[in-house]
Amino acid sequence: MKEFLQDIGGWTKNREARKEGLTLAGLLMFGKLRSILDVLPNYVVDYQERPEPKTEARWIDRITTDGSWSGNVYDFYRLTIRKLFADLKVPFRLNGTQRIDETPIHESIREALINTLIHTDYSGRVSILIVKRPDMFGFRNPGLMRISLEDALRGGISDCRNRNLQKMFQLIGKGEQAGSGIPRIYHGWRQQHWRAPELWEQVDPEQTLLAMRMVHLLPEETLVELDHRFGKKFQSLTNIQRLALATVVIESKVTHARLKSMASDHPHDITKALTYLVKEGFLESSGMTRGTIYFFPGEQPLEEDQLSFLDFNADLSGKDKDIFSGSETSDRDSVHLNGSSVHLNGDSVHLSKDSVQMKRLRKLSEAVRNTKKTSKINMIDTILQLCSQHFITLRELAHLLGRTPEYLRIHYVNKMVRNGQLQLQYPDKPSHPEQAYHSTIS
């Protein structure tokens, strides 16, 4: 452990020490708040306990970087894990003659907290935020995922943003081997027959979020609501079709990927179930390919990049919004695309939907936007054309192309940057909150 602690106090004064990742990790893990803020001025950790499963962000207990404690990552973990574990019911179990005081639920929560801390982009704009409510736990860290959601759920692949923090947690007996974190989180919840946790990203500002609901897959009150809404038609549905409709009741929408994370059905059967529900008028759909969302007729939720998760804090429509709202984030600085305007960062120009430039961009992307499937070559060519005259953000590309930001980033944009087809507007800061892309090929 000594090698991790060397020269922590003088880290900010020693230029050579700044090159040592272990020393920076040691500062975060065991340093003092003032020293951490000298190096990482955006550093904030925040735990909030909220008293009721309601939309308001009122808290009754809180741990944050207020100067009343050390402020480092390790002490935040120690203080927060006790709060998260408080009130969890532990059944009496023995391993030989020794009592086992933890359950798979404890393991899932611990893994979620450690995952949040070791995968954080500590230069990001938003705070690390942990929320505890009677019905759920929420975890947020600044920075996007470094592997695809599918790989994270499958397990076995690890690309930890802060490997030395990960090593430290392992040295003190916390955290599992690389690539096992997310599957362990889901496993603990599955053993309780609760709804699978939901893991997602928000691009502006960049953050990764995890919601762990203590809600059964098919709650009785939800089934009653669906029976009242659809009557005898609901009774004739299959289990996977009922699960899809219950998910819309609870989460305002459902996707193929979300349903796949909760059910063991073959992906083809899930597709057939969703198609049937749309055909018979139970649901409507919007979007294309992986970006398709399904919702009750006439009740389309707001776009995913505007409300990343319709569940926690009320917006103007009365729907639930986001567990992480109401905290001191920089979300107020984000730009929402509503189809009427696009802000092209390179030129700092707001384009109305009737402007010549906006019409040109929409015309260029029309074929891809209106097609569920397109060839890889066609998609790359369209991206290059859209970025040929302006720096365009990932969210703007997603808006123009009718795809999700995650899909474009993982399958196209990152690879095009590495291949030299796209250049970054902020090359020295790849995770810049306003990062945008320009074609290098005329």
Total number of helices? 17
Fill in the CATH topology of the largest domain: Heat Shock Protein 90
Order of strands, main sheet, comes to 2-1-5-6-8-7
| Radius of gyration using CA atoms only | 23 Å
Strand content: 5-15%
How helix-rich are the residues, as a percent range? Answer: 25-40%
Which structural class should the secondary elements be placed in? alpha+beta
Query: Kindly, what is the distance between the CA atoms of the first and last residues, rounded to a whole number of angstroms?
Result: 53 Å
Can you tell me the overall shape? globular
Estimate nothing, just give the exact number of structural domains.
3
CATH architecture of the largest domain: 2-Layer Sandwich
Nearest-integer average pLDDT:
78
Tell me the major beta sheet. Answer: 6 strands, mixed
CATH class of the largest domain: Alpha Beta
Number of strands: 15
pLDDT under 50 segments (min length 5)?
1-22, 303-351
Q: Would you kindly provide a written description of the structure presented here, covering whatever features stand out?
A:
The protein is an alpha+beta fold. It has 3 domains: 42-213, 2-Layer Sandwich (Heat Shock Protein 90); 220-295, Winged helix-like DNA-binding domain superfamily/Winged helix DNA-binding domain (Arc Repressor Mutant, subunit A, Orthogonal Bundle); 335-439, no CATH class. The protein has 17 helices and 15 strands. The chain has a 6-stranded mixed beta sheet with strand order 2-1-5-6-8-7, covered by helices on one side. A 3-stranded antiparallel beta sheet has the order 13-15-14.
